[in-house]
Amino acid sequence: MRKLSLLALAMASAWLLVAQTQQPAQPQQPDEIPTTDAQSGPCSVELSVTGPDAKPVYAARIDYHTAYGFMGTHKLDMTVYTNAQGKAKFTGIPAKLKKPPIEFNAKKDDLVGVATMDPATECQAKHDIVMDKKK
Q1: pTM of the complete model beyond 0.70
Q2: Is 14 exposed, middle or buried (0-12, 13-18, 19+ CB in 10 A)?
């Protein structure tokens, strides 16, 4: 009886392994915009990053830092990388900041660029960052 149970368990495990390997993998959506959620407020910004040649910049790193809340006691540092279309998004940005505007600093290799946003005046924003060589 014990051998039969072990055999049944082995067969079930093998069938499960085959079923898992035959399922198609979830394809990456090339148009999906990488998003980082701060979970600190209702605002968001979608950024489009281009190089000096006006072409989208893939895998540009975009950083931002801000202080919010009573006396700026809450600090927020976030990073996101652009997709193949040069797009990235930050969500969950607080509407009230200690020192607006927020600066979004983009970097890749020897290119840099910046965009600004004041969530109090533009809670749902779209901005472009044109990157250029560091000076």
Answers
A1: yes
A2: exposed
51 residue type, one letter: G
Cβ(119)–Cβ(102) below 8 Å: yes
- As a three-state string, the secondary structure of the chain is CHHHHHHHHHHHHHHHHHHHHHCCCCCCCCCCCCEEECCCCCEEEEEEEECCCCCECCCCEEEEEEEECHHHCEEEEEEEECCCCCEEEEEEECCCECCCCEEEEEEECCEEEEEEECCCCCCEEEEEEECEECC
Q: Is the peptide bond before 101 cis (omega within 30 degrees of 0)?
A: yes
Residue 1 clears pLDDT 60, i.e. is over it: no
Asked if 34 and 59 count as a contact pair (C-beta separation under 8 A), the reply is no
Q: In whole angstroms, give the CA distance from residue 90 to residue 78.
A: 8
Q: Which residues contact 95 (CB under 8 A, 6 or more apart)?
A: 41, 42, 43, 119, 120, 123
